[in-house]
Specification:
The complex is a heterodimer of chains A (801) and B (68). Chain A has 801 residues and is an alpha+beta fold. Among the domains of chain A are: 119 residues; 85 residues, Calcium-transporting ATPase, cytoplasmic transduction domain A, CATH 2.70.150; 152 residues, Rossmann fold; 110 residues, Calcium-transporting ATPase, cytoplasmic domain N (3-Layer(aba) Sandwich). Chain A is 42% helix and 19% strand. Chain A is built from 23 helices and 28 strands. In chain A, the strands form 6 sheets. A 7-stranded mixed sheet of chain A has the order 16-28-27-26-17-24-25. The radius of gyration of chain A is 33 Å and the shape is elongated. Chain B has one domain. Chain B contains 3 helices and no strands. The chains are: A alpha+beta (801), B mainly alpha (68).
Chain lengths: 801, 68
């Protein structure tokens, strides 16, 4: 078997020899030629077989002739210089970066292009006189880097990157380092001539450094504490803000009254470590998006047909948002239908896998209703719009309230739940010890009060969760579970109900289990069948062809394919019909067993033979997953399909698993809502757009994805399909992670006790605080990191079991 | 020893310059994509070599209108 020089795929049907190299198709050969003729064959030296075979795009980008659409896509336009950013999902290696950054060799209009590899985007600056947006898109598509343009791009969003955390961290680190140096001399010498001379200068310099730390770097803690107090919640930021404020005030009083050096190094160090924790917790998978809705799937423009003044039908490219009820649209092969519509003309074979996860396309007759979100698979369609984009059956789901709510704000995280008690105890200790000293030695009372608040500042507690969760997040990423943010892990540990979607989630959408029912086929008939199927491009024919023996393939005498119905062929006076039950010529009632399933019927020489049944294949290990989850959780299957698969599912899944069928997208959402109202913590696992509502409503929503480059609906985490049978292990791991946080809390409380014993007795010197504070923080970081790595190793062995 | 005032002033000044450069580079987005530049920097030389060796014997074709 020879592999393609360009894309590396095996050359199956044909092998094209060109310049002593083999190519799997003409597309790959053309790309090679383009690159070779333009001195760009270094592309193939960088990586082996880096290419992507280009797809047919004829007419697909005609909408880029429409000025208003182009204007919406451009990032910058002054009439001659234009800038555009494209998302190119097929970017995958260093050769891709190289070729895309050398686009100017292929199109003289391109001034510069810059790839952002993690985000899979390329930003192109070009001159409008020498090139156009359409030319660029077509060029990119021709060399295999087809940009992904969707309805989402039509709304210009200011690309705002919040870098304030980096600034805050930078300032805190800068101040911390400088203040530490300035405070050192006084720790080592007590009364030395020169030191006494410079002391005030050093101290005021430290004060100056701490100003931006308190008022800028730590500002987030003050606002969060204020918000918390206003809604009567003692979150962890309350004692932190209190600690920072007291540290600053006490230190300032100390240097003003010349009582001591103050705690500026502890103050700046505290803020620096806290921000470091926040920074570590942020781990973004920039090429994945967790916020997608239907707009990322839908096209930006459609072809609209209208009659001009002379009564002729004309095509125009219209923005999807401008399509109204009653408009006639032209849907080309492989285009997505963006609206609910009635089929007027053409053979519809609609693939709803984006929406339902169902891999098999459905055929429709003219007069049938087509729902938005389906992809046409067989030629050109003409449809009449029933409902515009925003009001279609599918997109109406997004008008539900859940999509405007922010999920993260609702639940109390583990740190806040401990900080409530912690803050109360802390304040009690502070007041009791102050009252005690007021009676014993009033001069020390202020000292003790502030010392308690300073030393008990819960830096270590605040660091426990971010570092543990940050580590767990990274371990999950290594095991192909990509989480949106760290707080999802805490939610995962609490789940008690797991709801699965069926199609596309429990079933794979790649392989099909095909069985034959009926009269046995003779050798000749089998040969004829494979020869017939070979000529058809229908997805069912392709998958059936793939499982059959490919001996003695003949050239057929006659072959005819009726799109959406079936194929008929003759060879040596034998005729065969393959397709739907009606097509093969029989009108009796089908057995109910077969009725609800995807079938391909066969008749040979006008005699009905039987049918191939396409059973959806369930993912490996689903029985084990359900059993493992079933031990301590409710497991439910929620399917949008009919009950055709009920029996098989009941056989596969452990007894007592609840199965619900015929669930519409809204039903799924409401089902989850009802579960939650009865106090359940629900994990929803789905895959298609029809699960979007349920995913959003659930406490944690995961999407199963065969390929992380393909877009998945808004969710909290994306799970690689190969890892499906490990869901139980992942949930257990998140529980272990939360346990580590609890141990870390105990650990840091122990440090607080040591510190408090200094503070309550009035012995807290700045140097003690300066040692204790970083020591506790660093040891917590070390503890959580070591512990999570240890547990992570265990997860690894569990998974590979 | 009063020189220490000047020394300190200089050292703080130098530190502030570096700090300002850091803020400037963050603002310019230099830390937004930390991966691509690491790959890109390895390309430059190869590109020159490629252009020099091939220019002599191949005539350059430029695709201006790829539709045709």
């Amino acid at each position: 078997m020879v592999n393609c020089f360009h894309c590396g795929d095996p050359c199956l049907d044909v092998e094209i020899k060109h310049e002593e190299k083999s190519f799997c198709c003409h597309g790959c050969k053309t790309v090679f030629d383009i690159l070779h003729d333009n001195d760009l064959s270094y592309y193939y030296d960088l990586e082996k077989t880096p290419g992507i075979s280009p797809k047919e795009i004829a007419g697909k980008y005609d909408f880029l002739d429409n000025e208003t659409i182009v204007e919406k896509l451009l990032e910058f336009n002054d009439g001659s210089t234009q800038i555009v950013s494209f998302l190119i999902p097929s970017i995958h290696c260093s050769s891709c970066i190289w070729i895309l950054e050398n686009l100017n060799k292929l199109n003289s209009g391109v001034k510069s292009s810059q790839v952002n590899f993690p985000e899979k985007t390329v930003r192109i600056t070009f001159t409008a006189e020498e090139s156009s947006l359409k030319n660029l898109v077509i060029l990119l598509s021709r060399i295999g880097y087809e940009p992904y343009i969707s309805l989402d791009d039509s709304e210009k969003k200011e690309k705002y990157i919040n870098r304030s955390l980096t600034y805050k961290l930078g300032i805190a680190g800068f101040a911390f380092g400088n203040v530490m140096f300035l405070s050192f001399p006084e720790y080592f010498e007590h009364s030395e001539f020169w030191l006494d001379q410079f002391k005030p200068f050093f101290r005021w310099l430290m004060f100056a450094f701490s100003l931006p730390v308190v008022f800028y770097s730590a500002s987030g803690y003050f606002t969060s504490a204020y918000k918390g107090l206003r809604s009567k919640i003692l979150n962890i930021d309350v004692p932190i803000a209190l600690g920072v404020a007291v540290l600053f005030i006490r230190s300032t009083i100390d240097i003003v009254m010349d009582l001591g050096t103050g705690f500026f190094d502890s103050l700046t160090g505290l803020v620096f470590f806290l921000l470091l924790g926040k920074f570590f917790q942020q781990k973004t998978y920039s090429y994945l998006s967790f916020e997608r809705d239907y707009k990322s799937y839908f096209p930006i423009a459609v072809t609209r047909l209208f009659k001009n003044a002379e009564g002729k039908t004309v095509e125009e490219q219209a923005e999807v948002y401008n399509v109204k009820k009653g408009d006639r649209l032209l849907i080309r092969n492989n285009e997505i239908i963006p609206v609910d519509a009635i089929l007027i003309k053409g053979n519809a074979l609609i693939d709803y896998s984006f929406v339902t996860g169902e891999a098999e396309p459905i055929s429709k007759q003219s007069g049938d209703k087509l729902f938005a979100g389906g992809k046409q698979q067989a030629g050109i369609l003409e449809v009449e719009v029933l409902k515009p984009v925003a009001q279609s059956y599918l997109t109406q789901l997004w008008s539900n309230d859940v999509f405007s709510k922010d999920k993260t704000g609702i639940f109390e995280n583990i740190t806040d739940s401990i900080s409530k008690r912690f803050t109360l105890v802390l304040l009690t200790v502070a007041f009791i010890s102050t009252i005690f000293w007021l009676m014993v030695d009033p001069s020390k009372a202020f000292n003790v009060f502030t010392s308690v608040l300073i030393v008990a500042c819960p830096c270590a507690i605040a660091l426990a969760a971010p570092f543990t969760l940050g580590n767990v997040l990274r371990i999950f990423g290594r095991e192909k579970l990509y989480l949106k943010e760290a707080s999802v892990i805490e939610q995962m540990a609490k789940l008690d109900t797991v709801v699965f979607d069926k199609t596309g989630t429990l079933t794979t959408n790649q392989k099909n289990l095909i069985t034959y029912e009926g009269l046995a086929l003779s050798e000749e008939e089998k040969q004829l069948l494979t020869s017939t199927l070979r000529a058809s491009s229908h997805p069912l024919s392709r998958s059936l062809y793939n499982i059959l023996d490919k001996n003695n393939i003949q050239t057929l005498d006659d072959f005819e394919e009726e799109v959406g119905k079936g194929i008929s062929a003759t060879f040596n006076n034998n005729s065969i019909k393959v397709g739907s039950y009606e097509f093969v010529g029989f009108y009796d009632e089908m057995t109910s067993e077969v009725k609800n399933k995807t079938t391909v019927h066969i008749s040979a020489n006008q005699v009905y033979k039987g049918c191939y049944i396409f059973n959806s294949e369930y993912r490996k290990g689903i029985s084990e997953v359900f059993e493992q989850l079933g031990t301590d959780k409710d497991v439910i299957v929620l399917s949008g399909d009919n009950e055709g698969e009920r029996e098989r599912l009941e056989m596969l899944l452990p007894e007592g698993t609840k199965l619900y069928f015929n669930q519409k997208p809204d039903d799924k959402l409401n089902f989850i809502k009802t579960l939650q109202q009865s106090g359940k913590q629900v994990l929803m696992i789905g895959d298609g757009l029809n699960d979007a509502g349920a995913l959003k409503q659930s406490n944690v929503g995961f999407v199963i994805s065969e390929n992380t480059n393909v877009f998945s609906p808004a969710c909290d985490g994306i799970l690689g399909a190969s890892q499906f049978n490990k869901i139980g292990d992942y949930l257990n791991f998140s529980k272990r992670g939360v346990n580590i946080i609890k141990w870390a809390f105990l650990f840091s409380l122990f440090y607080n006790l040591i510190g408090l014993s200094f503070a309550v007795t009035g012995h807290l010197q700045p140097v003690v605080a300066a040692i204790l504070m970083p020591l506790s923080s660093i040891s917590i970081v070390v503890f959580t990191t070591v512990a999570t790595q240890f547990v992570g190793k265990k997860l690894r062995t569990d998974i590979n079991k | 020893m009063t020189i220490i005032y000047m020394l300190l002033a200089i050292s703080v000044f130098v530190a502030l310059i570096f700090f300002a450069l850091f803020i400037f580079s963050v603002k310019k987005g230099q830390y937004d994509d930390t991966y691509t530049p690491s790959v890109r920097m390895l390309f430059e030389d190869e590109l020159v070599k490629e252009g020099a060796s091939n220019k002599a014997n191949t005539s350059k074709k430029t695709i201006t209108n790829p539709e045709k």
